[in-house]
# Entry
Amino acid sequence: MYSNLLVPLLIALALALTALVLVAARQPVARRLAFRQLARRRTEAALVTGGSVLGTAIIIGALVVGDTLNFSVRQEAYRTLGPVDERVVAPPGPAGRTVAERLAALADDPDIDGVLSAQAAQASAVSRSGGRTVAEPRVLAWQMDFDKASGFGAAGGESGIDGPNPEPGEVVINAPLAQSLRVGAGQPITLYLFGTPHTYRVDRVVPEQGLAGVGLGGRLNRDAFLAPGALDAAARAAASDAGPRSVTFVSNRGGVESGNALTPQVTSDIRRALGPVAAETAIETPKQTVLRDAKQAGDSLGALFLMIGSFSIIAGALLLVNIFVMLGEERKSQMGMMRAIGMKRSRLVSSFTVEGATYALLSAVPGVAIGVAVGWGVAVVAAEIFSGWSVGGSSIRIAFAVTPTSVVNGLAMGLLIAFAAILATSVRISRFNIIAAIRDLPTTPGREPRRRLLVVFTALAVLCALVAVPAVARSQPDATYLMPALALAFATPLLLRVLPRHAATTLVAGTVLAWTLLAPVVRPRIFDTPSMSVYVVQGALAAFSAVVLVSNNQKTLVRPARRFLERPSESGLAARLAVAYPLAKRFRTGATLVMYTLIVFVLVLLTQISGILRAGVDGVVTDATAGYSLRLDYNPQVAGERLIAELRTGPSAAGIAKVTPLLNATGRATDPGHRSTQPLDVAAVGVPEAAITGITFRERLSGLPNDPAVWNALATDPRYVVIDGFFGSTGGPAGDYYDPGDTLTVTDPRTGRSEQKVIAGVLSNGMVFYPGTGASSTTYPVVMGERGMRELFDDQAQNASALVSTRPGTSPDTLATQLQGEQLSSSLVATPIASEIRDQFDSSTAFFRLMQGFLALGLGIGITGLGVVMVRAVRERRRTIGILRALGFRARTVQRSFLWESAFVAVEGIVLGSLLGVLTTWLMYANSAAFTGLEGGFPIEWTSIGGLAAATFAASLLATVGPARRAASIRPARAVRVAD
# Structure
């Protein structure tokens, strides 16, 4: 994943490693100091390495998730296409034969490996297995020459079809159809061809690969291959005027994926070969679409997990910063003496950098291993979740995959982030007063910054403020948050000229926090983007500003507990010790607080979003169905007008209140959001006049006062169309890229006829208009009136679907099964709309739980950080503990003080993260278009948040038990006499 970053990351890593090697080789004193500390502090070194391991693992895990989805979608090209790069679909009869004859001449084209003509018809199938009747309405029946098919595209690999042609009365079926019908070789099945039944014996079952999995756009194709001429004979027997469609497959030179590069040229050659008959055909490039979808899906999901993981990565960097700040504090006297005898500051920086880089390098291999394991675990769980996002079993089939590019990218990013954090911290801790360091005096920051620093920071503040004005005015997501916050931060030195340090810091932190929380209220469109970076910026700013505000006012916050702290008892003494160090070491406490706050913030955010989805599902079902219970998809060539009449008067009519037939056609459209120049595959849907008025819109064209007015506009004016909020989206937040009044161009790919359409409304939920037969996930509905459909698509617009409203007391699921049995000859597929929506909501909730599990690694970093801080605190306070024990403090009091100190920090981080998470989710719910239609209210998930808080608190105490016991076991005499 992110192959474009590989070279820059490798160059940056090579430069960093070269610099480290040079420092280690040319500065032996710095090298020995670094390695000496590693050898002496093995437990601490193991903890630091463990924190770095988790940081690297999170990055690699996120990238591996992207690899897995990319690979899984690309497998569609192998399963359902194989050597097929282009597909030319022509109408039945003489026109189809003419197309096949013209395209046969392309076999001599040097860019083409093969041309194969076949005929296809939509069918359904029945078997009687184990005494039970099993039906499958989604079948494609094919007739093709197996001898020609076996050699099709042979230069690029196997075609997926081999062996002899089936004999008359026999059929070859692929594995998905065999699984659906529960049959094997030698067993009989009945195929409904052109509405009439024909019984065949299964000659053999072939794996779903290449031509044996081929279809006309679906992800899962149940194929039946008949003897040459069998479909023509079945059409004549049924007296069908239509007959099988002509389908010509073209294989480009090269392999399954490499041949895709020639698609534009070959498509042009196909059009040239077809000449005047091109207007009667649909020239499709399915492999190009599949591979494009694979890249988009992989990048989108990888970016999503990388966004979630970025909070953990920040926590990992803060862990390294915190550790090195503590190391600097512990070694302050030692560093002061080395500086006093002539060691340069740069040598101190080198020593710390080499030591930290060693920790990071030691974490590399285990970080890669754990990251790959995390990616595998996510893939296993995601496979179950994606199975819920399916239509007839046509979901994405998740298969674990990892590429060297992702491993190297993740490793390089992890190391570079660690190196940068270590270097910045080393430079900071190397700046100290030598005399104060030798005497171990506390540092006292000056009240006013130096003049040069003041000028530079003031200039940066003015620059950021100037950039912030147009960014906020245009609702640019990242800049709206970041620029005002940076302007305030850079203005801090100027404020220190007129305000005390405490007041200036509190003012800046409070203002940044207020802006971070209120920005969605002031500029609600900042969330109308599929980019993940805005959420990272928002979360980081909220956590950092809140922690700075709390850390700067800790004394005020603990004031309500003053009576307990001042109690002249053992517990009061332990409590005073517990809060004394966090209050005295504000930076150290703040860094640990940020780790907790960041992770808990995102976990609570995901928990609340899941709760909103669950609470809003009933409202979404109501909006999406508008009283309809079923969506029916069927074969229009067989059903004709008969099926609608039978639904209204047939055996199931007693359970049906209303039937609304829909016109359907396949087309292409431009993106009204201008995100891509590539045309989008669309399912054009024509609704009868006055038939649908209850389906609602989240946005309407100015001048259309209500929802029925929008449907009336579609019926009376063919210029108008409606789409849903996910039109053109490829994963992640859909964003808001178009509004009523915007235009898009819809094209009939068979004739090339195009019309510019005006968006009259954006549907609250367009679920009922999505194809129910397993079409690609990147096929989007465009809904228009019947008049507009017929003007644009002419005879391609056919009644191929319908919406059904059930009578009270009728179960939609039962009726769906009943209708599929009655109308099996028409290949009818009945989809219960409400059940489908609820299943997808359940899958979305499960996906949020998966992300929470992934983020739990970051919580591990925070807890590890707290454990490391407490381990270092025991060593740092060794002499103090010895003195307290010598004065009569009991071991139990010392142990309790360390446990309470850990609890104090953990509780502050948990509470702060939970409050920010709930508040931020509420602001997003109230202002973001992503939550439009979810009108179930804003529930606070008290149980889930409480469980999360309790688990985090318990784990934090467990991480501190060891250091607390170690502190309690320190012998006073030895601790007072020796430093280590």
Notes: The two ends are 48 Å apart (CA to CA). The chain has a mean pLDDT of 84. The CA atoms of residues 192 and 559 lie 81 Å apart. The longest strand covers residues 112-129.
